[in-house]
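Researcher: Please translate sequence to structure tokens.
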Amino acid sequence: MKKQSIKLFDKIVAALLAFIGYALGSCSCDYGTPSASFEVKGTVMGIESGPLDNIHVIVDTNQGWKDTIYTNKQGYYNYAGHDFTAPRVRIKVEDVDGEANGGEFLSDSTEFVFTKDDRTEKGDGWYEGHFERTVNFTLKRKANKEQE
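Model: Translation complete:
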């Protein structure tokens, strides 16, 4: 009698485990981490001089890494990335080439978080979509020592 009750218990446990396994296996659960692609672009101009070539553009996201790009002859820059969420972005622009752009310019920076208004493509599942923002800078000239 004891063996029969153990066998019956084993069968019940096996059936329960099979049912639980089937229920979990058929779940349309989606595991992952939210992510998004993003693009930051714009121009860097001098107040009197127009587009600034070869300006250092430092892009810093909330993931703790920085990347550097440079403006082209039209002062244009474009940075594309992919992150675990639509990130907080810090952008710093600085003149690193001295007098090459017709003078030395002061650095400038801004910080923002992408919003739903920046979304250009809706995502699916954990992918939140693609975000874009245009950020333009107008740099002031550094004061000459003669002007001080």
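Researcher: Any highlights?
Model: Residues 142 and 148 are 11 Å apart (CA to CA).
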